[in-house]
Specification:
The complex is a heterodimer of chains A (388) and B (310). Chain A is built from 15 helices and 4 strands. Chain A has a 4-stranded mixed beta sheet with strand order 2-1-3-4, covered by helices on one side. Chain A folds into 2 domains: 245 residues, no CATH class; 116 residues, 3-Layer(aba) Sandwich (abc type-2 transporter like fold), CATH 3.40.1710. Helices cover 67% and strands 5% of the residues of chain A. In chain B, strand 7, helix 6 and strand 8 form a beta-alpha-beta unit. Classes of the chains: A mainly alpha (388), B alpha/beta (310). Chain A: It holds the Pfam family ABC2_membrane_3.
C-alpha cells in the first residue's frame, strides 16, 4: 500500500509541529479542566466543624462525648488562652469552641441545669452538627441516668457509645438528576473538541494538500493504481492518524482523572469523543480537498477550530451563551458534541430514557460526519473532473 | 504502433488548443514534438495520458484505446512532467521508491530498480537528500528517475530540460538516448530545436494545435527551398552591389545587417563560390565567412512565417 505508507510518512514528517500543538493543547486542557471543574460535589457528605474541645471535667462520659464529637467535628488544638482562642475564631482556624466546666457530668446526671460553654463563628452551618451531637449525647445520658441509676459512668458511656454506633442507611433517590463527580472529565472532553480539531485538521489536511498538488495528482493518476484504491488508502491512513490522536488525548484524561475510568459515564464520554473524532476527520478531509496550498491552512485551521469552540460552549458553558449564538452553533458538530458531554456528565442512571438525549446528540454527530464525508468525496471527484 | 493519435480536438472555450492533431509513434523511436510555447504540445501529451478530456478524436496506446481506466496500458508508461513533481517530504530515494512502488509491488525487485534509476541519473551521492536541498539540475534528474524507475516501454518526457544548466541538460539528453538504446520508445516535447535535432529520430512540428510537418530532420529540411545560409563579415558594401548580388543565380535573399552580409541560397548550387567571386570582382573587402545548413527553425520559419521562439 504505497499511498497508505506515504500518508503516514507525511504525517510523521509533520509530527514535530503536531506534537507541539498536542502538548500545548494538553497543558491548556488539563489546566482549564482542573480549574473549571466544580469544587463542591452535590452528593450528600457531612460537613465538619473545626472544634476546640476544652474539658475541665475528666470523666468516662466526657471522654465518650469527645469520641462522639469526633464524628461531627475536626478537633483543633489551640492553647486555652482567651486571646489565642479569639484569634483562632477570627482567622477561622476554629469555628466552634466548646468548654466543659468542672463538675458538669455530675450535675447533668443529677438532673442539674449546668450548661456547656460555647463560642462559635456566626452563621457557620457546620456548627449545627456539633449542637446536635451535644444535645443528643447529654439528653440520652440524662435519660439513662434517670431510668437506670445503677449504671456506673463507665457503663453509661459504653451504652451511649453503642447507641450512637448505629447508622441509618441512606439511599439517594435522584428525583432530578444529581450532579455527579464527572466535572473534570466533562471539561476535559469539552476541551478535547478544540485539541482534536486542531491536531486532526493540521495532520489530515496537510496530507490531502500534499497529495492534491496538481502535478503529483497527475503523476499518481498516470500510475496503474486505481483511483478508488488511492482514495481508500488515503482515508485509511487518515483514520489511523485520527485514532492514534484520539487514543493519546483520551489516555491523558485517564491519567489525570483515573478515579473515573471505570464509571459508565466514561464509556459514553469515549463513545461521544470517538464519533466526534470521526466527524472532525471528515471535516479535515473536506478542508484538505478544498484548500490549494499549505500557506492558507494555518488560517483556515484556526477559524474552523476556534470559531465553533467559542460559540458551542467549549470555552464558555452553553448556559452563559445567548440564544442566537446557540442557534447558530447548532449548525456545527461541536455544539452537539458539547451537548452530549453535558448530558453524560449528569447521568446517574443509565436507562433508555436517561440515555436517549445522549444518543440523539451522537446521532446528529454521525449525520454531520456522513454529510461532510459525502461532500468531501463530491468535491474531490469534481476537482478531478474539472482538472481533466 | 506504440501511439496512434487521430484527429484529436481539444477546445478551451473558444480557443482551439488541438485542431485535428494526428501523428503516430512507432516502437523504438524517439519522437520529438517540437513547437513554440502554447502550440499545444503539453495539451496533446495530457490528452494522450487521459489527464485531459478531449472533444474529439481517437488515441490508442499499445494498440488499446487510452481511457482514464486503462490501467493495463498505464503500467507500461513512464511520465516525466514539465514541472518537477516530487514529494518535498520524502528523500531522493524515498521519492523514487514511492513512484516505482505504484508499478512494482515486489520489494526486492523494486529496490533493484530504484538503485538502477539512481545510478542512471547519477544521484547516488544525494540519496538521502530532500528535494529542497537539490539544485535545479539535480531536481530535474530526480524528476526523470521518478518517471523511469519502473522500466516502462513508453516514456513521455514533457520539456524535461526547462531551466536546466548545460551540464545537466547534456546528461539528461544522453540518458534519454541510453533509455532508447535499452528498448524504450520515447516521446519528447520541447521548444529547444537543438535538443530535438540532437536526439530525435523523428520530429513532429506542431503549431496552433496542428501538425505542420513531420519526418526525420533530413526529411524536414528537404521540404524547404533554403539550401544554405552564408554569412560574410563585410566592412562596407553599396546598395547597388547588394542589388546585383541578389540577382545572381541560386541566391534567394541578401541582407546586410551590422556589417554581416547574410545570403540565403537554394539547394544544390555552388553558392559560396559565386559569392566569393562576386566580392573579389567588386573589390569588396571581407573577413570571416560562415556557411550553415538550414536548421529546424528555418523549416518552421519557412512553413509558418515566424520563428520557433516567437
Amino acid at each position: 500500500m504505497p499511498v497508505f505508507n506515504l500518508c503516514l510518512k507525511i504525517i510523521r514528517k509533520n509530527w514535530i509541529s503536531i506534537s507541539i500543538y498536542l502538548a500545548i493543547f494538553l497543558v491548556i486542557s488539563v489546566l482549564l479542566s482542573t480549574n473549571s471543574a466544580p469544587k463542591e460535589t452535590h452528593n450528600f457528605s457531612q460537613e465538619k466543624a473545626k472544634l476546640v474541645f476544652i474539658s475541665k471535667d475528666h470523666t468516662p462520659l466526657t471522654e465518650g462525648f469527645r469520641k462522639e464529637l469526633a464524628k461531627s467535628a475536626t478537633f483543633v488544638k489551640i492553647p486555652d488562652n482567651t486571646e489565642k482562642l479569639q484569634d483562632a475564631l477570627f482567622f477561622r482556624q476554629a469555628t466552634y469552641i466548646l468548654r466543659i466546666p468542672k463538675g458538669f457530668t455530675e450535675n447533668v446526671l443529677n438532673g442539674g441545669s449546668m450548661q456547656l460553654e460555647k463560642t462559635i463563628v456566626p452563621n457557620s452551618a457546620e456548627n449545627a452538627y456539633v449542637d446536635l451531637s451535644v444535645n443528643q449525647y447529654w439528653r440520652l445520658a440524662k435519660l439513662y441516668a434517670k431510668h437506670e441509676p445503677q449504671l456506673s459512668e463507665k457503663q453509661l458511656a459504653d451504652k451511649l457509645s453503642a447507641n450512637f454506633s448505629h447508622n441509618t442507611p441512606i439511599e439517594m433517590k435522584a428525583q432530578i438528576r444529581a450532579k455527579t463527580d464527572q466535572g473534570f472529565s466533562m471539561y476535559y472532553f469539552n476541551f478535547l473538541a478544540y485539541t482534536l480539531s486542531a491536531v486532526l485538521i493540521l495532520g489530515i489536511s496537510t496530507v490531502m494538500i500534499v497529495f492534491n498538488k496538481n502535478d503529483l495528482r497527475r503523476r499518481n493518476f498516470c500510475s496503474p493504481v486505481h483511483a478508488s484504491s488511492i482514495n481508500s488508502q488515503m482515508i485509511l491512513a487518515n483514520l489511523l492518524f485520527a485514532a492514534i490522536s484520539w487514543v493519546i488525548l483520551v489516555g491523558f484524561c485517564f491519567i489525570f482523572d483515573s478515579k473515573n475510568i471505570m464509571t459508565p459515564n466514561m464509556i459514553y464520554f469515549l463513545l461521544n469523543s470517538a464519533v466526534f473524532t470521526l466527524c472532525i476527520s471528515c471535516i479535515s478531509y473536506l478542508i484538505g480537498n478544498l484548500l490549494g496550498n499549505l500557506r492558507n491552512m494555518s488560517a483556515v485551521c484556526n477559524v474552523v477550530t476556534l470559531g465553533p469552540c467559542f460559540i458551542s460552549g467549549v470555552f464558555v458553558p452553553q448556559q452563559f451563551l445567548g440564544e442566537t449564538i446557540l442557534k447558530i452553533a447548532r449548525f456545527t458538530p461541536t455544539y452537539w458534541y458539547v451537548q452530549a458531554n453535558d448530558e453524560i456528565s449528569q447521568l446517574t442512571r443509565f436507562t433508555w430514557t436517561d440515555l436517549s438525549p445522549v444518543f440523539y446528540n451522537i446521532a446528529v454527530l454521525i449525520g454531520f460526519s456522513l454529510a461532510f464525508l459525502a461532500l468531501s468525496l463530491v468535491v474531490g471527484k469534481r476537482k478531478r473532473l474539472t482538472d481533466r | 504502433m506504440i501511439i496512434q493519435v487521430k484527429n484529436l480536438v481539444k477546445r478551451y472555450g473558444d480557443l482551439v488548443a488541438l485542431d485535428h492533431l494526428s501523428f503516430n509513434v512507432k516502437e523504438g523511436e524517439i519522437v520529438g514534438l517540437l513547437g513554440p510555447n502554447g502550440s499545444g504540445k503539453s495539451t496533446a501529451i495530457h490528452c494522450i495520458l487521459s489527464l485531459l478530456k478531449y472533444d474529439k478524436g481517437d488515441i490508442e496506446i499499445f494498440g488499446k484505446k487510452m481511457t482514464p481506466d486503462a490501467y493495463d496500458v498505464k503500467r507500461d508508461i513512464g511520465l516525466v512532467m514539465q514541472n518537477v513533481a516530487v514529494f518535498d517530504e520524502l528523500t531522493v530515494y524515498e521519492n523514487i521508491n514511492y513512484f516505482c512502488g505504484l508499478y512494482v509491488r515486489d520489494r526486492a525487485e523494486r529496490k533493484r530498480l530504484v538503485d538502477e534509476a539512481i545510478a542512471f541519473v547519477e544521484l547516488e551521492a544525494f540519496k538521502k537528500f530532500y528535494p529542497k536541498k537539490l539544485s535545479g539540475g539535480l531536481l530535474r534528474r530526480l524528476n526523470i528517475a521518478c518517471g523511469i524507475a519502473h522500466k516502462p516501454k513508453l516514456i513521455i518526457l514533457d520539456e524535461p530540460t526547462v531551466a536546466v544548466d548545460p551540464q545537466s541538460r547534456n546528461k539528461i539528453l544522453e540518458g534519454i538516448e541510453h533509455l532508447n538504446a535499452q528498448g524504450a520508445t520515447i516521446v519528447y516535447t520541447s521548444h529547444y530545436m537543438e535538443e530535438v535535432e540532437q536526439i530525435c529520430s523523428r520530429i513532429v512540428i506542431i503549431d496552433k494545435g496542428r501538425v505542420i510537418a513531420s519526418g526525420t530532420k533530413e526529411e524536414l529540411k528537404a521540404m524547404i527551398t533554403l539550401g544554405e545560409k552564408i554569412t560574410v563579415e563585410v566592412f562596407t558594401i553599396e546598395e547597388d552591389q547588394l542589388r546585383v548580388l541578389r540577382e545572381q543565380p541560386g541566391i534567394m535573399s541578401v541582407d546586410y545587417v551590422s556589417k554581416q552580409l547574410i545570403i540565403k541560397s537554394d539547394k544544390g548550387n555552388n553558392n559560396l563560390e559565386i559569392v566569393l567571386e562576386f566580392l573579389k570582382a567588386n573589390h569588396i573587402g571581407f573577413g570571416r565567412i560562415y556557411s550553415e545548413l538550414p536548421t529546424l527553425n528555418d523549416v518552421f520559419l519557412e512553413i509558418t512565417g515566424k520563428q520557433l521562439r516567437d
